[in-house]
């Protein structure tokens, strides 16, 4: 029986309930007081023992004291903010305490967490104690009026040190007033807690600019790797075309000329077999060169290259692909080999009699679909919109990885009985210059 899907978490800007907000602020009081005592003890003992060896670890512990407090605050923040706060610390490059200490002391977030610990210990928790204490004092004093009158034994009780209640009806009226005021006074605590959560998230989150810079650098390095990979493919294709293929052509021509000399029968048979082997090797190396990087893709573009694939497919293929301009070489290459892999799988496994390749570029993205009328049932990852599972073969997984590097995605729909739809989407900025 499928489990019900969890409700989506509220946005970071949502306001917590009064009870959760009060509990969040109330738990700050003991945590803040313990933090204050710990910081004062570490600072005092470390300074006093600085001349001795034992003082250095105490001061180092003081510097690192923000790390466990920040980890606890990230967990406590979930009381009022369902969006988790990620840990900004990175893994040490090597095992061991020395590597861990070196890494932590070099991180900006360690010093930000120390600043948060000082702010929390000396400023934040006293203000939170004042806010929660005011609500508890006012409402508790009103609600407890009948109890104080009964305990006093003289038939009167002083309400909040302001006036004297000298009758039971008046005492119970004050109690009712306290019950009515309780939700009204706790309601502002929601916004106090929300502001506290925003401050905590701002201080304990990694800087946005640093994250954006790292993401941008990762994107640039990823594209550099793609360009280097394509350049290496082109180099291998050129070396095979200009080197090994030309030698095989020369060898085939030489063997052909030798056969024309009409040698004796045993030698003629050997020359014929050698000529056939050279011709077969030449065909194979031409196919290999075409598989590494087809010339039609470089010379005429993606549409012509896909039409060439369709002409060479053993199954009839209809191509309706609309690409207005030449695209980046990495994009054209990735889409070409994705369609090639899809057509190869259709020919091998689907039992289809017809294939259709459709696609168009719109809003900066190129969407291409390969649909066949086969029996379906292709192996794919059960997650919606995920790339095909590697257990179904490395070809489709390699295609999905190649598209993922370019910011694209591979989708596979193949219910039993068909049809199978192989769909890919990839960003397609126009190529300003091509190598």
Instruction: List low-pLDDT spans.
Output: 1-14, 380-393
Helix-strand pattern, N to C? Answer: HHHHHHEEHHHHHEHEEHEE
User: Span from first to last CA?
Assistant: 56 Å
* SS class: alpha+beta
| Global morphology | elongated
- Helix % is 55-70%
Our estimate of the beta-strand percent is 5-15%
Query: pLDDT average, as an integer?
Result: 76
User: Got a strand count?
Assistant: 7
The major sheet is characterized as: 5 strands, mixed
What count of helical segments does DSSP give? 13
CA-atom Rg in angstroms? 37 Å
Order of strands side by side in the largest beta sheet?
A: 3-4-5-7-6
Task: Please give a structural write-up.
- With 435 residues, the chain is an alpha+beta fold.
- It contains 13 helices and seven strands.
- Helix 1 runs antiparallel to helix 2, helix 1 packs across helix 7 and helix 12 runs antiparallel to helix 13.
Task: Pick out its properties.
disordered N terminus; 13 helices; 435 residues; 7 strands; five-stranded mixed beta sheet; alpha+beta; single chain; 63% helix; 9% strand
